[in-house]
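note to self — DONT lose this again. spent like an hour looking for the file last time. sequence + predicted structure for the chain T wanted, 144 res
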Amino acid sequence: MTVYVSISKKDESGDAPDGCENWFVLVNAPAITDNFKWTDDNKENYKNNILKKIDSYPFMINDSIKNHIMFCEIFTPADFLSKYNSEFGSIYGLSSNSLYSLMRRPKNKSKKFDNLFFVGGNTHPGGGVPLCFLSGKIVSKLVL
């Protein structure tokens, strides 16, 4: 499990009250499938696994992180689906767990319509901000 932690209070004192910190924790999460649904129990179990992972790094804090949480909001793939209509609740586009996933990504130009182009994390070259920008650059050249 990849865990990304950002605490902007470290640089911006106004981002959290005095004596507190604001932790933004981003982790990889399974997309919505027939085999996995983001129920309240699954959200709680996933959160607890993340907190255990954070607690496994003794340089983070000297106590369990659970004892210091005053507010926690969990944003799951189900939330991404309902709020942004992202496919299967994916934040980065199609899964890239195999060597062949690159070949399965939709091309940037429609085979059916000459004036239809695709850009973003679900198309070539893939997910993530740098690749989405590259996707836009590819499409701009195709359009021209």
